[in-house]
Each structure stands twice: as structure tokens, then as C-alpha cells.
Specification:
globular; alpha/beta; 5 strands; single chain; about 15% strand; Rossmann fold
């Protein structure tokens, strides 16, 4: 085989391999009431997250990995919230940001904990959710904090 032809074929193969090994995106799930009761919090949370993700991606992502969002409407209904979290888990999200109201925790947090799925909430503040050994992190103080 011609050495020049082998070299070009080898370079082409490496280029194909490198482009197919592009950084996989970090997929974040967002679950909140986007319709119905308390939807204002969910819509505002979604919009803020979309702005943050756009800024992160414009700056090159996280360690070169782009961030993608999977947005779901829990309709501020615990049964729907659980179904939505199950969908996000099945879709392979890295973690979930949500829910916006504490009444969503009754069904969703046991599922989150059973599946070692991290959940971050910007607004859930029930005193029953703090000081637990679980996979839930609240970004606000509990309702009974001094």
C-alpha cells in the first residue's frame, strides 16, 4: 500500500473518530407547574433557567460540555409531578431542578431518593424537607427558620 495513501486514510479515520467523540451534553431536567395553580413561579423559574443555560452555553458550556434542558409541566399536581420525574429519569437527565411547591415532595422525593437522582429546588421550603439524609437540596430556608 502506498505510504501517502495510508497516511491520509489514517488522518481521515482519526478526524472521524474525534468528531464522533464530541462532548456529550449535560442534560438538566426542569419540572414545575407551568399551567394551573402556582404556574407563575414555574414559568418564572423556567425562564430564568433558560437564560442561565443560554449564558453558560455561550461561554463554552461546563468544561466544554453544552447544557441541554428537558422541561416538563407538573401542573402543580403530585401524581403528574411523579410521572414527569419518572420520564425525566428515563430520559437520562443528570439531575432535576424543581418542583416549585412543597406539596410536590410527598410523591416525588421517595422516587428521587430510590433512584439516587439529585433534585434541586429553588423554592420548596417546607420544614419537613430539611435536615434529611436524601438527594434533595433546597435553595431556600425552611418555613420555620429563624
Amino acid at each position: 500500500m502506498n505510504a501517502k495513501r495510508f497516511f491520509y486514510g489514517f488522518v481521515f479515520l482519526i478526524m472521524v473518530m474525534l468528531t464522533s467523540c464530541a462532548q456529550q451534553p449535560i442534560t438538566i431536567g426542569f419540572s414545575a407547574g407551568l399551567t394551573g395553580n402556582a404556574s407563575e413561579m414555574g414559568v418564572n423559574g423556567r425562564n430564568g433557567l433558560m437564560i442561565a443555560v443560554a449564558e453558560i452555553n455561550a461561554a463554552g458550556g461546563v468544561n466544554g460540555r453544552p447544557v441541554e434542558l428537558m422541561i416538563k409541566d407538573d401542573q402543580n399536581n403530585p401524581e403528574i409531578a411523579l410521572a414527569v420525574d419518572q420520564e425525566l429519569y428515563q430520559d437520562g437527565v443528570s439531575f432535576i431542578i424543581g418542583h416549585m411547591t412543597s406539596n410536590m415532595a410527598r410523591l416525588t422525593l421517595p422516587f428521587v431518593n430510590q433512584n439516587n437522582l439529585l433534585m434541586l429546588s429553588p423554592t420548596m421550603s417546607s420544614y419537613e424537607l430539611v435536615d434529611q439524609d436524601d438527594h434533595f437540596i433546597s435553595m431556600v430556608s425552611s418555613n420555620d427558620a429563624d
